[in-house]
């Protein structure tokens, strides 16, 4: 690239001062040449500045307070026809760009789509092109004035254009009506790898033969347009190089009218923009593709989805959006590290690409979350078929380093246009369907429906209300007594949270606890439950019920919370209750997660004196080995086994096995959900220690529990 001996003075006509700063920053980052930028924020002030005559190049925004569109270009060209103009605009419009070039602009840059190197090159190319065109015009003007110095002027012209970083040409219509290359400068060798003497005076077809086959139509169409209407053209295309590679070429040309009003010449310049094209390609890769998988990203997916929606509307066809999320992906990251997680994501993307058609689009949108576009399907059932195929893809394990990983996925499906007529709606609805698939057990797909939309809205309402429920004192605890079958006395109570919503009434825990876990409120709510239950235990303790045990449930997220043990210790210290009277209930699946950390947490809780119960026993996958290893005091039989114990022999066998196993390990057994006397009799005959259920008492407020305690609980007067 030709460098300049002095600073190029650039006039930026732009009303946004921020862009002036950005432009200066980018130009300062370039090594050479040096630039000096002056700014006018109005078109008229820019024209006034041009009258000083010291501006080398103009950067013109097409949207200004006192002018807009190509009118601004016309005014600037009229004020200073010899100063090259580069359009710098936020409008990405091919037709507008073409019109701007045809009206004398040297280049058309879209804000936000170029970096400092591209800006630098564009300014210099524009400056050099303008110089070349000016000299070329000057040459032909002088040529028309006098034929006497033709040879000298040709030599001077050839010398001039030989130093231009590109090639200057003239195509002419000869006497036989054939277009030939009248002149092409030596710069063509650097572009196409052929010498100018091999092309000069040859048919234009000889140059066309150098063009990449797939781009020939672009070049021919531009040339024919220039010949037919004397218009300017501005094209990019590839040219074959003798090295076996291809080069990207930027060409600008214009048809020149002869004396008869017919186009007799086509003049133009061409530049090697291979590096610029590569930079653009790299920029496109960064902007539109996921760096980990090289799959299209959300922005490119949205664009393709928008096009698919328009096409389906035009052809009266349907398509589908699928959102797929890996189940328990966070657990893999947390357990094995993000490096293994990243490799798993790559392996998943490979399987997806092998499963889907080329016409489909697969996008990773973060974590273990993918989106898939089926632009054309015959009927909605086709999307379900694809979803089933994707579920089957995950049945075989992934081999990542030394690990054999099994994972499943949950899929949500939205059909367009019936489930949405724009990308945002379709993506939102497919996502809602995917979350419902997760809520229903994972490893499945779910079609979107209007009922899901209603549920999503209701969930949003609950989320917003839940965030304020603690500070508004909307939570309360009920306590369900536990009856010791050996003594006939109440030995404990289970604290159960209730949410009394001011508008929606009582909301059961099964509805709001999962939401609290999702939005990160389970820790403050869990701490409130534990503190409130311990404070109530202190009241009962002061009333003489010192042996009464209070059970509090810990969710998985609570139990694995890094500060959980310290929180329990702090509350016990503040409330002053006996740690042995606090029973912490942990589900079977929770206790089996992160075994090393679980063992340490249980050990610390037992050292404090806390009582440990495994809740919902029989529904998970505990082994006798772990039951023997963990410091556990009690097993709670899940109500699903108790419900049909009278009529189902298998359930009776399961409860008997649990009770026998627990007693062999010196553990107590609680049966929950006991509602019938026949259930009680069977459990009592099997040796069950404690029952809990509506047969004895439903959950009650603390002020009502005291009545039951007065009648059935063991009371130790103060001082004993």
Structure description:
By secondary structure, this protein is of the alpha/beta class. The protein folds into four domains: 8-120, Response regulator (Rossmann fold), CATH 3.40.50.2300; 166-280, Beta-Lactamase (2-Layer Sandwich); 294-448, Alpha-Beta Plaits (2-Layer Sandwich); 462-712, TIM Barrel (Alpha-Beta Barrel), CATH 3.20.20. The protein is built from 27 helices and 29 strands. A hairpin with a 3-residue loop joins strand 21 and strand 22. It is elongated and about 125 Å long. 34% of the residues are buried. The mean pLDDT is 84.
What is the element layout, followed by pairings?
Layout: E1 8-13, H1 17-28, E2 35-40, H2 43-50, E3 57-60, E4 63-64, E5 67-68, H3 70-79, E6 85-89, H4 94-102, E7 107-110, H5 116-145, H6 150-162, E8 167-173, E9 179-184, H7 188-192, H8 204-208, H9 216-229, E10 232-240, E11 246-257, E12 263-272, H10 274-288, H11 298-315, E13 318-326, H12 329-336, H13 338-355, E14 361-366, E15 369-377, H14 380-393, E16 398-400, E17 403-405, E18 409-416, H15 423-439, E19 445-447, H16 450-469, E20 475-484, E21 489-501, E22 505-507, H17 509-518, H18 522-542, E23 549-554, H19 556-559, H20 564-575, E24 582-587, H21 588-591, H22 595-608, E25 611-617, H23 624-629, E26 634-637, H24 639-643, H25 649-664, E27 668-672, H26 677-685, E28 690-692, E29 700-701, H27 702-712
Parallel strand pairs: 1-2, 1-3, 3-6, 6-7, 18-19, 21-23, 23-24, 24-25, 25-26, 26-27, 27-28
Antiparallel strand pairs: 4-5, 8-9, 8-12, 10-11, 11-12, 13-15, 13-18, 14-15, 16-17, 20-21, 20-28, 20-29, 21-22
């Amino acid at each position: 690239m030709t460098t300049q001996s002095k600073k190029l003075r650039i006039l930026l006509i732009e009303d946004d001062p921020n862009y002036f700063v950005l432009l200066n920053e980018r130009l300062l980052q370039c090594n050479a040449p040096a630039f000096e930028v002056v700014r006018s924020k109005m078109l008229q002030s820019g024209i006034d500045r041009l009258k000083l005559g010291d501006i080398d190049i103009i950067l013109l925004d097409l949207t200004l307070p006192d002018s807009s569109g190509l009118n601004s270009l016309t005014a600037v060209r009229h004020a200073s026809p010899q100063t090259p103009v580069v359009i710098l605009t936020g409008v990405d419009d091919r037709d507008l760009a073409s019109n701007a070039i045809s009206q004398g602009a040297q280049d058309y840059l879209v804000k936000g789509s170029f970096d400092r190197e591209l800006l630098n090159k564009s300014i210099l190319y524009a400056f050099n092109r303008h110089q070349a065109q000016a000299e070329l015009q000057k040459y032909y003007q002088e040529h028309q004035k006098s034929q006497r110095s033709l040879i000298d002027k040709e030599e001077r012209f050839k010398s001039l254009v030989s130093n231009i970083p590109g090639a200057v040409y003239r195509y002419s219509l000869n006497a036989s009506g054939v277009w030939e290359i009248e002149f092409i400068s030596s710069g063509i060798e650097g572009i196409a790898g052929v010498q100018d003497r091999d092309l000069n005076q040859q048919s234009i077809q000889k140059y066309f033969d150098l063009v990449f086959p797939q781009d020939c139509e672009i070049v021919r169409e531009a040339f024919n347009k220039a010949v037919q209407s004397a218009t300017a053209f501005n094209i990019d295309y590839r040219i074959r190089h003798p090295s076996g590679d291809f080069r990207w070429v930027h060409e600008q040309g214009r048809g020149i009218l002869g004396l008869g009003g017919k186009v007799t010449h086509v003049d133009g310049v061409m530049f090697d923009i291979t590096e610029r094209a590569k930079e653009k390609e790299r920029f496109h890769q960064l902007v539109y593709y996921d760096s980990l998988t090289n799959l299209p990203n959300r922005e490119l997916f949205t664009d393709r989805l928008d096009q698919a929606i328009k096409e389906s509307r035009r052809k009266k066809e349907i398509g589908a959006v699928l959102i797929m999320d890996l189940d328990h992906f966070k657990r893999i990251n947390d357990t094995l590290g993000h490096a293994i997680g990243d490799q798993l994501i790559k392996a998943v993307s490979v399987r997806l690409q092998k499963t889907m058609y080329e016409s489909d689009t697969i996008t990773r949108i973060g974590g273990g979350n993918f989106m898939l576009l089926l632009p054309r399907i015959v009927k909605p059932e086709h999307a379900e078929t694809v979803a089933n195929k994707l579920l089957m893809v995950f049945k075989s394990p992934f081999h990542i380093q030394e690990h054999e990983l099994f994972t499943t996925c949950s899929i949500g499906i939205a059909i367009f246009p019936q489930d949405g007529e724009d990308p945002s709606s379709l993506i939102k609805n497919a996502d809602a369907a995917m979350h419902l698939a997760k809520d229903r057990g994972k490893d499945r797909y779910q079609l979107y429906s209007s009922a899901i939309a209603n549920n999503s809205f209701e969930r949003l309402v609950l989320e917003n209300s839940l965030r304020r429920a603690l500070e508004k004192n909307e939570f309360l605890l009920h306590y369900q007594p536990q009856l010791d079958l050996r003594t006939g006395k109440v030995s404990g109570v289970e604290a159960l949270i209730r949410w009394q919503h001011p508008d929606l009434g009582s909301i059961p825990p099964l509805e709001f606890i999962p939401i609290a876990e999702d939005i990160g409120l389970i820790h403050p709510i869990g701490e409130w439950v534990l503190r409130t239950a311990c404070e109530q235990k202190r009241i009962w303790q002061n009333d003489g019920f010192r042996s009464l045990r209070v059970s509090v449930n810990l969710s998985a997220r609570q139990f694995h919370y890094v500060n959980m043990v310290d929180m329990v210790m702090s509350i016990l210290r503040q409330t002053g209750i006996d740690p042995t009277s606090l029973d912490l209930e942990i589900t079977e699946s929770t206790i089996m997660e992160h075994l090393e950390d679980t063992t340490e947490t249980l050990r610390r809780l037992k050292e404090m004196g806390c009582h440990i119960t495994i809740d919902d026993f029989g529904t998970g996958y505990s082994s006798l080995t772990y039951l023997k290893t963990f410091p556990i005091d009690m097993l709670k039989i899940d109500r699903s086994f108790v419900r049909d114990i009278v009529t189902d022999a298998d359930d009776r066998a399961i409860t008997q096995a649990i009770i026998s196993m627990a007693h062999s390990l010196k553990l107590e057994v609680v049966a929950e959900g006991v509602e019938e006397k026949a259930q009680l009799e069977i459990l009592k005959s099997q040796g069950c220690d404690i029952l809990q259920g509506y047969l004895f008492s439903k959950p009650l407020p603390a002020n009502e529990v005291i009545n039951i305690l007065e009648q059935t609980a063991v009371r130790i007067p103060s001082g004993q």
